[in-house]
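As a warm-up, study this chain.
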Amino acid sequence: MRFVFVSGNRTWGGSEELWSATAAVLAADGHGVTVFKSGIDDSEPRIQSLRALACPIRDLARFPLMPKRLFKLIRFLSSGGAYAHEMLRLLIPLALSRRPDLVVVSQGGNYDGFFLAEVCRRLSLPYAIVSQKASELYWPADWQQATIASVYRSARACFFVSENNRQLTEEQLGFRLQRATVVRNPFLVDWKPRTDWPDDSRERRLACIGRLHPKEKGQDLLLRVLARRHWRDRPLSVTFYGDGLQRASLQRMAHNLGLANVKFAGFVRDVSGIWSDQHGLVLPSRCEGLPLVLVEAMLSGRVAIVTNVGGTGEVVEDGATAYVASAPTEDALDNAMERAWSERHRWREIGTEAAARIRTLIPREPERCFATRLVELVSSAEAL
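Now compare it with the structure written out below.
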């Protein structure tokens, strides 16, 4: 079979893991795989794996013979022109090449890649949509609604990473999605349960992992909570892992608040290594799909303190496998952290329960499961 994977995301993050890992599985199984993505980074292991499998990879965010810096400037000055350029970079090869059996359009949100899916719809190509996140923070504009609705209605399948995201997308579109289903993302830690536990005789250590983007990830909420007097005096530290456009401003905020128990470790590729030193995860997100870092923390047997956004509530139980803040607010987060601190003697026990629970909800090889579903989707269409 011939598969085309399309990602409009201009950076690499957790939302890129599913399509790229699945593409590698399909290519290794002998299927034809072509990739279109904005902002190809050849240092990414997933991209390297796809190149090793001889998959053609085309950068949607390039203009032939134009220097990268100049093209980035042009894209920055005209977002509409950038989208039109990406559509043409996708449309021309798809129109001129052999018809694929299925195009998989991966979105970081639930409508940010609709213009790429629209190319497939206009060309009458079979396509599926993957949505990695939906949030009340982002609603499509009215002038986009008709096209987005057509894109979703015409898709062979619409995949979401949580039931919450599916329901919210239906609310934003105003109709039920008949071919919607939930899929899981691949993770970057070992499936085999861990039995180690970091030394906690002097302090407890929490990791806050994710892109440094307060609007979505809520790191500012956590810093304000840590600035409250009762947290200043406790043997607790928080390490922020990740990078982003707001790293410097978050560091300044922590400095201005006088937080001595906070540090910024930057991006770390070895996720398992994080959990060799950290006792738990704190995730103050304002919006999520299903946080990959939460899944990885649970698989690693670590306690989690999270806000009840996205699909978080679908995989954790408050007080049993995690501590859940009822909303992404300072007081709610403080309350969840306070309950966790009062039961810190149970953290290892809760982590063990979380590890067992998540293995009943997440398959061992999500990318293999997704690849199988895509093959079945093509096969069922051929049988009609």
